[in-house]
Predict the structure.
Amino acid sequence: MKVTVLYVGSSLLAPLRNAEAQINQRYALDVQIATHNFGSIFTDDEWLKIEGELNESEVIFVIHVMDGENATRLIPLLDQLRRQRTIVVTNCMPALMRRTRMGKLDFAKLPGASAKSEGQRAKSQGQSAKSKKSESVDGDPESLLKSIASWVSRQSRSGKSNGHGRADYLKWADRLPRLMRYLPNAGPLRDAKNYLMLMSYFLQPTPQNIQSMILLALKSYVDDERLKSIEIPQPEAVASVAIYHPDAPSLFESFSDYEHWYFRDRSKNKEPSTNHKTDSLDPTATIGLLLMRPQIVSHSRKHYDALIRAIEAEGLSVIPAISTLMDNREACEKFFVKQGSGVGSRESRVRRGKATDHGQRTTDKRKARVSQIVSLTGFSFVGGPAMNDSVAAADYLKELNVPYRSLVSLDAQTIESWRESFTGLNPVQTGMQVAIPEIDGATEPFVFGGIPARGVEPAPLEDRCVRIAKRINRWNRLQEAGRSELKIALVIYCFPPNKGNIGTAADLDVFASLLDVLKELKGQGYDVDPPASCEALRDLLLNGNSAEFETNANVAYRMPVDEYRILNPFVSDIEHEWGAAPGAINAKDGELLIQGIALGNIFIGVQPTFGYEDDPMRLLMAKGGTPHHGFAAFYTYLEKVFQADAVVHVGTHGAMEFMPGKQVGMSGECWPDRLIGELPNIYVYSVNNPSEGTIAKRRSYAGLISYLTPPIENAGLYRGLASLKDLIGSYRVAHDAAERAQLYASIEEARKELNLAIH
Amino acid sequence: MTETVLMKSRIDVKERDARVTQLHEQLIEIEQRLIPTGLHVFGRAAELKEKADLLRMVASFDRPEQGARALPKLVAEGLGFDTEAVNESPANETRELIDGIVAESIKLFCEKGSDEAAAFLNKNANVMNDESAPTFALLEKVSQQLDSNREIDSLMRSLRGEYIEPGPGADIVQNPFVLPTGRNTHAVNPYSVPSRAAFDRAKHTADALLRRYLDEHGRYPRALALVLWGLDNIKTQGEGVAQALWLLGVRPVRDTLNRATEVEVIPLDELKRPRIDVVMTVSGIFRDLFTPTMALLDKAVRRVAQLDEPPEMNYLRANISNSTENATGDFDDAVTRVFSNAPGNYGANVNFMVMQSAWENEASLGDLFVTRKCFAYIRDSQGGTVEGREAPQLMDAALSRVEATYQNIDSFEVGITDVDHYFEYLGGISKAVETRAQAKPSIYLSDSLSPQTKIRSLEETVRLESRTKTLNPKWYEGMLKHGFRGGAEIENHVTNTFGWSATADAVDPWIYTEITKTFLLDEQMFQRLLELNQYSVQSLAKRLLEAHERGYWNPNEEVLERLREIIDQIRLAAEHSPTERAVASS
């Protein structure tokens, strides 16, 4: 017996494999389950294999497939098989949903699923969905069927709907088993009931439910004596909104239960965290995580566990909440916000939108139970997989006012393909899991886990989990430390490299900006004494000891090669490319020169350049290897010697984020990741350059602060051009032929003088 | 006899008038060109003496999402003209009338507010108040936001680990909702491009491009090389991408999730012109931000290459069948049209080479471009994804057929002499084409942000940029207000202008002469610059001397002597600078 499951995601493979083994063992069957992750892009050879397996299968499941290209190739294959095979399609795009065929149940023949054009369909069903309340279906098999049809069709409108269309996903999980009672086991509705039962299992994808799902399909649609006597259990139910913790025996449906467990039972085995002096979670040291429900339910959660432990290893606590997929505000509201802290009024304020001023702290952060929110769902904050309401997301997060991160689990490619790829994430994942969360204001798009090529469930990327956890901890320090303790590095550029270009940045007066920032930092309590004027600041930077070292700027620190070797773990990689440290760039007498000035706890540093000017041959290389020693030493200095708490890159743009490595989804081998290390990175960036800014955001984990472009005015006319316009004006109003001729001669003369050509 | 003389003089008068009108149009083009004046200081409100120019431009576009109509169109309608009148030449009388009324209403808006301005439009152009109200409401919001600034506050909040609200990125004119600044700028969903609006605008622009080539050459270009950047494609929701699709004669098709993942061929009888072969060189940033779009472009090329159409109507197919017959015969090779950097690498480096004067002959600049940008990103015939295969021969072959190069410019804020990347890309590819096709391509740029899309040759654009920026007192005085940084900006503009000589020989010698006169030979200006940023003055003089040495400009010996003198003078001064000596001896 053969079953093929075409799915997208990382939570189904393990339960399917488990089901295959269990079924064969318990019932002495020979069920084979072929699986393909349809988040991938397939070659012709792979398609041939898929086609072969579909042909051999009695039952075909298609789950979560939304990709147009894969669907386009799959549909004709399904159409060929529809007459002889059982095809179960759930949670897919409508063109696929209509291919469901189980016994007498044929989705193509459901009301509203006829072969009208796509556009008409969406429109007419939109109306019918509106006119018919789905709540009225209880107890009425006829309207239940219609309701399935309309639910199927509503999935088709998700691209532009307001988010309510798909929100009943979870409602169905709760309601379906209840509705089952009303349906007879035999007769014309038998197949519809089977479909709903399969859905009930699938919506709660525990290992047992997935096993039941496979068994029910086989038992109902494969004619084999051995299947007839198998008893299939009712669906197991798992809470839809809850807190998960790897150490806990079960899920917590309330925050207080979780908190209670966290301090009583959990601490029996663990040293209590030093951050918690009482028995309540300290909001300043607690990270809110949003987890995918299917991963929790199906026990595909090793990557979550590793990240949770990495964060706890930093002395922080966690609230790992199961995401309310279509709208994470529900989960946040329930678990990340203190009850009775005035959030009741939030809804109305959010509705009105834009009522509050930008940047104004609208809510006391203490109302949040968490200091940061980290989404592991890979989807938009409001809207789920198929759409995004980023205005609602930003309004909500602005109110909560804690940083929002969205991390990436490799669900549509393997860990190996990511690791070996120069590009990193594949386009599907970049679009869905990076580009869309960014519109919600998410930063730090780290890859934290994924499915290994030979594995069946997600595994963590341990080094990434540790890096994320440490960075999160650094951001927490920024929130909590006294301003006078914090060390901040302000990084400026010098490009093309000569003294005259210190403080390069598109459209920005860097020195004036720096001085204003220094003054504000002092006002906020940071330990800094701003120079008296722009000129004084520039003099400190440009001159100082720069003549002595023949550098463009003052040398703030001389890093001996020995120290550099100890502090920078990647020296040998760089030596492979640039020769023995310290090399020729930003170096003198065996020391690496860090250019900049220290003003109290604020360091203003001049970022080194790519290093082409000292070695023009490098320009000719088709692809680059590594930054030079001087470049690496600069960031080593910031993190390890100066020990910055944060780095602010001042202006558009520097070179660090363009250093070689993957395009998106950095690994520990990628240079931007190695250079920025654990440092929180804030990037002051021109508002008219969203493209290069996004490179900084993705490759060097920068949070951008946009700045205005310079005033725009009409160019106007000047000197000769202005006089020429006057001449032309006179010519246009002159009537006398001689006068016109004379004016024309003057115009011609001026034209030539001004090098204006006429064709 | 007398009759012919009369005739001739009448023709002369007519021709004279036409020439004056053309000159007039050129002056208006310069005069009304929007330029950035100066630099921004982080955290400070816009230093706009005069918001009117900017607001007038903001008001020149329909903003359907705000229900706001373009004021010039409202005025045209109110006066009973066709709305197309707003696209007439600026020297056209109707257009002058409309522009005059709009300008006056904006002036009133700035001085006395919305009500007065609306009343003026009502009285003078029969525009109903409720028609103009949404536009003035938008202007009011923009105006207020320009008067305030929360950037430093946002930076401080970010340093306290607070949430920074996301916001779009674009020119203010293009998308006034980039205000307020101080937000976490985001890109776009790559599957959303090209948007429908972008496709409509692109048709217009690409048609104008083809028309211009047709006017100049009497036929369509058989192959075009396009430069695609992330910058304008984010800001315009994929106008450059849409232009490429339209030139090929296909339109994007959206799937049920509203993602542009397929293309549909536009029949020839609807297209009414041949399909153009397009070679796309894509920036590393575009590659990263628009990976699915690269696949869409490759798909479009493959679809068009396989159409059974006569060669004179499908240049791509014709070019490919020629090359498959001759060379290896591999379809995947012959159809490769999407090129970018090696994975994880960025830039063509042509800019670095020019700035460092690290080149001997111009051809090496084009060769460098191909070296860096010859990585093919395609799906092969077996469905395999090719992530950047180094393919210089394929790129050479594709470029060898190119007759015109082109880049879409969507911005008033960033022009071709403002940054080095334009000559790095459009200049680099043009030089690469020149040596490979053995003929200099026609080089074009569009001005896609103006309500009236305009195609200009590179030479025209360099002249316009030089006249409106580098040589314009309004521009350089704006820069000089920022002292040291302003001095560096002036020098950068000259170097970027020089880049267009090096890569495309597109700079008239008079431009160098005027630059020299304005900044170095004018003693007062020279002293000012020296005071502000002597290092940049030195670089400026060196660059001008280099322009002469490389044969782009031939000033008299006196000028050359002065340039050398300046370079020496600054070098000596730096060596004897009291601060540096003091430090050195301490």
The two ends of chain B are 91 Å apart (CA to CA).
